[in-house]
Amino acid sequence: MTTTLSARAEAAPAPVPPRRPVRGFLARHWYAWAMVTPVVLVLAVLVLYPLAHGVYLSLTNATEMNSGRTIGVNEIPATYEFIGLENYFSVLSGADGAFYPRLLWTVQWTVICVALHYTIGLGLALLLNRALRMRTLYRMLLILPWAVPPFVAAFGWRLILNDEGGLLNAVLNVVGIPGVDWLGQPLAAKVSVIMVNVWLGVPFMMVALLGGLQTVPKELYEAAEMDGASPWQRFRAVTLPGLRPVSGTVILLGTIWTFNQFPVIALLTGGGPGGATNILVTEAYERAFQGIRDYAGAATYGAIIASMLVVFAFLYRRWLQRQTSEVLG
Q1: CA 183, CA 274: separation in Å to the nearest integer?
Q2: To 10 degrees, the CA torsion angle through 139, 141, 147, 150?
Q3: 312 within a domain of the structure (yes/no)
Q4: What is the CATH number of the domain that holds 189?
C-alpha cells in the first residue's frame, strides 16, 4: 500500500506555477498591443510631450528674451527660472487684465454657438428624416460647409463681410439698408464670427442627429399617435428621449471644439477690433507669437483652458449618467 502511494506521488506532475495576470494578458492580446503601440507612440510625441512641456513652461518666466536660441554661430543659453504657480496666481487674480473678459466672451461664444448648432441641426435633421423629393441632393448641399476647411471658409466670409465691396453690404444697399462695418465694430464683429461658426458647425450636428433619428423605433411614434399624442407631444416624449445618447455626445464635442475654435476668429477678425472677439485660445496665441513673446503666459492660458475642459467634460458626463439613470429608474 505504501509502495503504491509513493509511486503515484512520484508519477503525479509537479504543480504548475500560476501565470502572472499581466504577462498572461499581454500574451493573449499581443496582436492588439502591437497594433496600438504605434498610435500610443505618436500620441506621446505629438500630444503628451508638448502638453507636459507646456505645463512646465507655465511654471517658469520664459519669454522670447530669456529663452535659448541660436544666432548665426552663437548659441545663447536659456536663462528663464522656475517660479512655481506665480503665473497662475497672476492670471486667476485678474492682474493681467485680460483673462476674465476673455473668459466671459468665450463662454458666451460657446453657449450661443452650440445652442444654435444643436437647434438648427435638429430642425434640419427632422426635415431630412421625412420623405422628401430630392432629399439626397438637400443632404449633399447642407453637408458642403462641413467639407470646407475652416481657413478657406474664413477667407471666403471675409470677402462677403468686407466693409467696402463686400457682398453682404452690396445686397443691403440694393434693398435700401446702409452697409455695416461687420468686421470693424465690436458688436457686429461678434455677430459675424458667431454666424460663420454656426455655418461651419451645423452640418456636423445635422448628420449626427439625423443618424440618431433613424435609430428611434417607428413603433414608438405609431403607439404615441394611436394614443392621441400631438406632434409636439410625440417630439417631446419620443424623439428627444431617443436622441439623448447622441445629443449628449455631440453637445460635448461641439462645446470642446467651439471653446477652442481658433481659425474662425484668428482669420476672420484677428481677435479685433481691439481684442473684442478674442477668446481664450486666441489670447494665448497672441501672447506666444505677437510682440515680446510670453511663452510662460501662453502656456499658462493653455493649461487653464485644458483644465476647464477636462472638468466640464467630467461634470457633464456625470450629469448625463444621472439623467439617464433617473429616466431608466
Answers
A1: 11
A2: -130
A3: no
A4: 1.10.3720.10
